[in-house]
Design goal:
It is built from 14 helices and 16 strands. With 435 residues, the chain is an alpha/beta fold. The longest helix has 20 residues. The N and C termini lie far apart (54 Å). The structure holds NADP nicotinamide-adenine-dinucleotide phosphate.
Length: 435
Amino acid sequence: MKKKLGIGLVGFGTVGTGVWETLQRNFDLISNRADVRTEIMRIAVRDMNKARAIGAPVEKFTTEWSEVVADPSVDIVVELIGGTTTAFDVVAAALRARKPVVTGNKALLAERGEELFALSRECKTAIHFEAAVAGGIPIIKTVQDSFVGNRILSMTGIINGTSNYILERMTDAGLGYEEALKEAQELGYAESDPTLDVNGWDAAHKAILLATLAYGFTINPDDVYVRGIEMVRGIDIDFAKRLGFVVKLLCVVREHEDGTIELRTQPSFIPKSHVLSSVNGVFNAVAVHGDAAGESLFYGRGAGKDPTASSVVADIVEAARGLRHDGGHRGFLPYRDHGTVMSIDDTQTPYYVRFDVTDEPGVIAKIANILADAGIGISGTHSPVNADNPDAEFVDMVFQLHTCRFGLLKDTLKEVEALDCVNSRPVVFRIENLG
Ligand SMILES: NC(=O)c1ccc[n+]([C@@H]2O[C@H](COP(=O)([O-])OP(=O)(O)OC[C@H]3O[C@@H](n4cnc5c(N)ncnc54)[C@H](OP(=O)(O)O)[C@@H]3O)[C@@H](O)[C@H]2O)c1
């Protein structure tokens, strides 16, 4: 008879119900593979009166998460409520009770991981977090285990499905940003409050976790450059197309020769010929470049009930195996006290910059002169004609610029912005040469 281990679920929403269903559906398969039987013993929710499609016995439910953690029949605690406050208390209490934790909460680990991983080491009890990055794609175990023999040179990823869906609809259907966002919400691809998705922070939290694992030190989110997709307009999408690029919300994690880590998330122009350009809809992909393995691409469903449950269940099994076989501590083990996130000002790429200008003679020359004085090369410029209003007073003007330090570009654009003929802050996209 296989040993039985009890699971406590804190949170029974999209992912929690997916975990319940997956554990029920594949019970025999999972038991045989894990060499233990797992059973969900207790479930914490916020509202006991909410109608639930899943037929979990009512006696398992409580609104007190602490009852789940303290229940002697619970050996492993699965935190699936989200947020960084109560979720922190749940994870900390479980670790103190020496109960391994499984979580899919990237915001919690990116913002407060330092405290939690320290507690995890102190209590010799693991935090498993495969579901926190890229839903059903096993990217955490890849970086932690499969690439353990590699120096990781870079990781480049599209890891927010909501933004990716919106950008795809703007590209293929010509929808405006607001229209595409509304459609994503109607189809359930975007939350009713999509802030963290569209402002880039959901993707940035995931990139921070990947960088932490790859480079062994805790990263302060304040050191990370993050821009979202709210400023992308149809004109940018059209220009990208014309120039042979696609606009994607891209996370870039890269180790430089001096040991600094470039870490940024922003809408970028990526070459149409690169495989990441065809990652569409709610799919995610991460290209990992190891010094031994070379470049590998991981592609799949980055969110959703079943794909995310797949990762949570894998972590439950890993935690169960650890308990069953007295496996040692797992989770994040920092091996560097200090690491440096490269200042965004020192990063370098070519750029595409859009200016909102008053349509008067000499505008192009004024902007071009300032750029030239700063030593920034121009590879192209264009002012599109507004077919609906050819005599418009205000027009968009775009410049393609050669590679330069972002700090130099930023300072120079401040000078451009001060021109009377420039009406708002210039919008900058990086042109990523992904090799
Ligand atoms: N959804 C995805 O595709 C996805 C993908 C990857 C990672 N994740 C992560 O997984 C976590 C859960 O996401 P989700 O989409 O499943 O969220 P969700 O659908 O909003 O579900 C949240 C669940 O937590 C319960 N809850 C909230 N506050 C609680 C509290 N104080 N005490 C007890 N229960 C509480 C809610 O109870 P009620 O049911 O009573 O409201 C609900 O069952 C988040 O960290 C998210 O970032 C989600």
